[in-house]
Amino acid sequence: MAVSDEDHMAQALALGRRGLGTTWPNPSVGCVVVSPDGEIVGRGWTAPGGRPHAEAVALDHAGEKARGATLYVTLEPCAHAGRGAPCADAIVAAGPARVVVAMRDPDPRTAGNGIDRLRAAGIEVTEGVLGDAALEVVLGHVLRVTEGRPAVTLKLALGSDGLVPRGRGAPRFVTSAGARAHAHLLRARADAILVGRGTIMTDDPSLTCRLPGMICRSPVRVVLDSRLRTPPSAHLFEDEMVPVWLVCADGELDAGAALLQERGAEIIPVPVDAEGLPAVKEALEALALRGITSVLVEGGPSVARAFLDADVVDAAVIYQGAEPAGADGWLPFVSEGLDRLSEHGHLTLTLSRSFGPDRMTCWRRERTCSLVSSPT
Q1: Active-site residue 55, yes or no?
Q2: What is the mean pLDDT of each run of 10 residues along the chain (376 residues)?
Q3: Could you identify which of 98, 161, 217, 224 might form a hypothetical disulfide with 70, taking C-beta atoms 3.0 to 4.6 angstroms apart as the criterion?
Q4: Is there a contact between 267 and 243 (Cβ–Cβ < 8 Å)?
């Protein structure tokens, strides 16, 4: 049975997902090189730290077999030089007969220039294959370029009573080990994890990825702490290999900041909102300026509501366990329950699955890939 362009692009997308959380400030891209007789002769995805790019890895793997082949890539090959030569030039030099691109890169340094360079060299280019699926993988890169912010995923764990459990100096779990393992996979795929200072005070979490063998995939840990009252003794600071960034209100750099900096924290002052708290959109812009393309928000109800109110939530993942949170639990959004998600107007339920006794639901902001709408 013949293998279609969609089949090969799906393989490239699977490769691109492998790098999620490790390639910032660059997007995580996947690439497959297929010989004229249908053999996959090269595979690659963006390396940690963003270099080398997926195309360079796949072409190196393919070697001379790339000549006359078809190359499938999930994002338009770059046309600008950075720490390496432009991928568009490397592809031209490798000599494939055809390149299939899922979507164009909105980065103005490329933005169609990569595709133009390929076509000018006589390479046939097909655009728009699985473009919407590709957008989901590189959404953080697209938003960082077009809106100046990273993609935001909101994650909450609720009890069977629909309430968020209240920590008592340590995290309190109402979900099973299977659901918690999946939540840690979300951490591994994010560039940064964000909570409020209240979560630090009530749960004292480490905020690392604790899946076996994946501590190295722990995201940057970000705390919204308007007055820099995070205690230097918090568990957050015990793992010195994973960065800690404290986002505070402008003008809060005092003696307390020096103590936190001694513990390894980077202090990021931003403007405040009407309540004197770090403004959500400005905080996200500050993270984007530092290269962050995706943020997993794991804060409590106040932080969750603030991000919904700011209309910056691109996806929400809700775990609901079989055990109740209890009478001292919180509503998910301070004064509102889960109905707030459906009433938000931009989020649509896209997935529901079980982890043993627990149920996970995923909500996403509806988007289509405007960078390429259909195959050409």
Answers
A1: yes
A2: 87 97 96 96 96 96 96 95 84 97 95 95 96 96 97 96 83 89 96 95 92 92 94 93 94 79 94 85 97 96 94 96 89 90 84 94 85 51
A3: 98
A4: no
